Amino acid sequence: MFALSIKAETAKFAAALSAVASKQLPYAISRALNDTAQDVLADNKRLMTSVFDRPTPFTLNAFYAKPATQQSLSTTVQRKDQVVGKHYLETEASGGARGQTGIDKLLSMRIAYAGHLWGVVPGDGARLDAYGNWSSAERNQVLAVLKAMRDGAANETTRSRKRAGSARARYFVSPPSFKTPGIWKRIPGQRQPSLILLFVGEAPGYQARFPFHANAERVAREAFPKRFAQRFNAALASAR
Predict the structure, then answer these.
(1) Which of 16, 39, 52, 135 has the fewest CB atoms within 10 Å, i.e. is most exposed?
(2) Residue 215 belongs to what H/E stretch?
(3) Cα(101)–Cα(233) distance, rounded to whole angstroms?
(4) What is the pTM of this model?
């Protein structure tokens, strides 16, 4: 689980301050902690853009900060909850085999394939979106043609196939004669089909490349003294 807690010890410091300064101390610390948490979040996004290829907004916004208050001088920067399964960012941080994605699970359960299908990766013929992921439009076309949509009513029917016309591209699962297992696209008039999805039989492994904890701790150590000085000085200036 990703989580970085930032706390402040105030007892000794408060004892050395005047009554006015001591009164302002919890306010200044809580604001400085929250400023620091925002610094950590911002730098975490910078880190993601440097280690990942075109991270999606979903990935960039995967973390949030639980704010500090004057009664609870601690803030926590952590990943947003995921309903089930291991989060892909944890694999990127620690390395190892990634878990199945939703499309991996769906295709392994729904399509007719004689071999062992653990998951899929885009092939050379796949349409990709702006973030380098398989486009949702082509994904829905493939699932509909292969009758693998979660909503069966969205699958292609004989009637809808005729309505689309003979010029429409067709998708099919590779037969045993194909050396490369996967989902292929055949365009009328073209001799060679193109590979849309490559089938993989086991979980691909990843090297650790997302040092969340080390980076977040560095940013917090550097940012908090500056943030506290700003907030404490401002609090003293406005004290009455």
Answers:
(1) 16
(2) helix 212-238
(3) 50
(4) 0.77
Long-range CB contact pairs, 95-100, < 8 A, 24+: 95/205, 95/206, 95/207, 95/208, 95/209, 96/205, 96/206, 97/202, 97/203, 97/204, 97/205, 97/206, 98/203, 98/204, 98/205, 98/206, 99/203, 100/203
The predicted pLDDT at position 15 comes to 59
Q: 3-state SS string over 52-114?
A: CCCCCHHHHCCEEEECCCCCCCEEEEEECCCCCCCCHHHHHHHCEECCCCHHHHHHHHHCCCC
| d(C-alpha 148, C-alpha 109), whole Å | 9
Question: Alpha-carbon distance 52 to 89, whole Å?
Answer: 11
Each residue of 70-123: pLDDT tens digit? 999 999 999 987 655 567 888 898 888 888 888 999 999 888 888 889 999 999
| Confidence at residue 23, expressed as pLDDT on a 0 to 100 scale | 76
Q: Which two tokens stand for residue 66?
A: 């639980």
User: Token pair for residue 238?
Assistant: 């406005």
> Side chain identity at 45, as an amino acid letter?
K
From residue 209, give the alpha-carbon distance in Å to each of 30, 49, 51, 215: 32, 12, 7, 12
Q: What is the pLDDT of residues 136-192, one digit of tens each?
A: 999 999 999 898 888 777 777 777 766 766 667 889 999 888 899 999 999 888 889
Q: Using an 8 Å Cβ cutoff, are 54 and 128 in contact?
A: no
Q: Letter for the amino acid at 188?
A: P
